[in-house]
Design brief:
The complex is a heterodimer of chains A (147) and B (261).
Chain A: H1 3-19, H2 33-39, H3 46-61, H4 66-84, H5 94-117, H6 124-146
Helix pairs in contact in A: 2-3, 2-6, 3-4, 4-5, 5-6
Chain B: H1 2-18, H2 24-29, H3 35-100, E1 109-118, E2 126-130, E3 140-143, E4 146-154, E5 158-163, E6 170-175, E7 181-185, E8 191-193, E9 207-210, E10 222-230, E11 239-244, E12 253-258
Antiparallel strand pairs in B: 1-2, 1-12, 2-5, 3-4, 3-12, 4-5, 6-7, 6-9, 7-8, 8-11, 9-10, 10-11
The chains are: A mainly alpha (147), B alpha+beta (261).
Chain lengths: 147, 261
């Protein structure tokens, strides 16, 4: 992946993440950095990027450790899985794989928050919308990288 | 191998980071990690909204301001016209007042004449009026029912009116309360009655009217009001001061009453 594109996407997503995409109080907000992590999963240092982006998310959301752990854990897991099973160049598999990845990350986040704080507001529709928005961002970024 | 070690290291760190305590009491009450981002976002939205609404209001205010300026200019001209009309109507009122004091059955020669000159010294001692060719010396000049003066000199197109404020002005007057006839001597700002004897019952507040012995049909035009009566012991004549009521400087037109031939 081109470094220039990565930073450009990072800045755009950062702005989106902070000002446009978060939910209204209930947990599942769209994690816009996830598509970025997923698209650069072929990079050997993708888990490091995921870790840093997770830290950023944690700092912004005042939930230290949650995003960091889920991002890092699932990125490492995905790297292992893809290296053994799926040819990542298959375009039609990218989106379902990302959806699963996204949903798993979100469920893990919800679970950790519930374990850590004993309380969370969660709504099915907002959860679904968050996943949908993440998928849309993923599609847009995918098209962008192809060019 | 190196990468695997890195992954393991990151995983351990992230796992441990879960157990770092945060502000639990705050989160237990209401967990909303994006609370402050929400507020920040809302404030930015509010800023944008205010900016747009202020701009729209400014445009509206500018439009309204232009409209109001036009209206103001219109009303200013309107006020000027109105004040002119008011002045004209006032003058007409003065003239009609004078005319109402004249008995039409006596068939006097009445001319409405325009005032073309005033006493610039401010003592109101004379006015100049337009002469239509019929005004003669000795004609009576009136306005608003008040006695203004007498035409003292005529020229081709103008006539010189000696007013009740003139020091050289003398005439017969009539006290409305007692019916006595006196001689009035003009003066500025007050005139006086010069031949009231100490026996006469003339009082402050009496109204003094103009009277002509030659022509009894001429109306009793109001000359002034007695404002002071000085009863000195050793004087045979009283010192009676009269305030003339006519104000020649405000008249644009006067009524000239001529002798009937």
């Amino acid at each position: 992946m081109n470094k220039k594109y990565f930073f450009l996407s990072f800045i755009v997503l950062f702005i989106l993440e902070f000002f446009l995409l978060e939910g209204s109080g209930t947990y599942p907000f769209p994690e816009a950095f996830l598509p970025l992590v997923f698209l650069s999963i072929e990079n050997p240092y993708a888990p490091l990027k995921a870790f840093l982006l997770g830290v950023l998310m944690d700092l912004s959301a005042n939930t230290f450790g949650i995003f960091t752990f889920s991002y890092t854990f699932y990125t490492i897991l995905a790297r292992f899985l893809f290296s053994y099973t799926i040819d990542f160049e298959d375009d039609y598999l990218k989106l379902p794989a990302f959806s699963v990845f996204d949903i798993l990350v979100k469920i893990t986040n919800v679970a950790i928050i519930y374990i850590k704080y004993g309380y969370i507001r969660i709504g099915f529709i907002s959860f679904a919308m968050a996943v949908l928005v993440d998928c849309l961002i993923f599609l847009a970024l995918n098209m962008f990288y192809k060019k | 191998m190196r990468l695997n070690l890195l992954y393991l290291f990151l995983l351990i760190i992230s796992l441990f980071s879960i157990f770092i305590p945060t502000q639990t009491s705050y989160i237990l009450i209401k967990y909303n990690p994006f609370n402050y981002i929400n507020s920040y976002r809302l404030s930015i939205y509010a800023f944008g909204r205010d900016l747009i609404s202020n701009y729209v209001n400014l445009l509206n205010a500018q439009k309204e301001n232009a409209l109001l300026k036009k209206k103001l200019a219109y009303y200013e001209t309107f006020i000027n016209e109105l004040s002119k009309c008011q002045n004209e109507s006032r003058q007409l009122y003065y003239i009609s007042n004078s005319l109402s004091f004249i008995n039409p059955s006596t068939n006097p020669n009445i001319y409405v004449s325009k005032v073309i000159g005033y006493d610039l010294s401010g003592k109101k001692s004379f006015i100049e009026i337009e002469n239509n060719g019929h005004i003669k010396e000795g004609d009576i000049v009136s306005s608003n029912g008040y006695f203004v003066g007498i035409v003292s000199k005529t020229y081709k197109n103008t006539a010189y009116v000696m007013t009740v404020y003139n020091k050289k002005f003398h005439t017969l007057v009539y006290d409305y309360a007692t019916g006595d006839t006196y001689i009035y001597k003009g003066g500025y700002p007050t005139g006086k009655i010069i031949n009231a004897s100490s026996r006469d019952n003339i009082n402050v507040g009496d109204l003094i009217y103009f009277r002509s012995l030659k022509n009894q049909e001429i109306p009793y035009l109001l000359v002034g009001k007695v404002i002071s009566v000085n009863r000195a012991k050793n004087l045979f004549f009283l010192n009676v001061i009269v305030q003339p009521l006519a104000n020649p400087n405000i008249y644009d037109f006067v009524v000239v009453v001529g002798n009937r031939k």
